[in-house]
Amino acid sequence: MFLGVFTLSITTIPLAVYNGIVIGNSLGVAVTHSLKLSKILLAILPHGIFEIPAIIISISVGLQGINFYKISCKKEYLRYLGKMYGVVFILLFLASLVESYVSFLIAGG
């Protein structure tokens, strides 16, 4: 979703919508296969604590696409983008660790 910075936000919105559709479909399939909603939420929420803010940050940065070309002080803006990339990377890394070790155990793996 960060690519929106370079593509005038053209890629960010479809990717955000697609992400929502995939999550909704996954929950729908899990519920229709008689999995308890409480167990599904317990499996998703621990890593969602890190993943949801990462997605929100990447969407917000991706939606600033036009600003990338308008800002006169690009060095500071590139430094800001680098920090945001770093924050999102760390959050997604933590989410993957939690999903691997915590959510897997909660889901009954």
UniProtKB/TrEMBL annotation:
Keywords: Membrane, Transmembrane, Transmembrane helix
TM spans (from-to): 40-63, 84-107
Pfam families the UniProt entry points to: SpoIIM
InterPro entries in alphabetical order: SpoIIM-like
Name recorded for this polypeptide: Stage II sporulation protein M
Native species: Geobacillus subterraneus
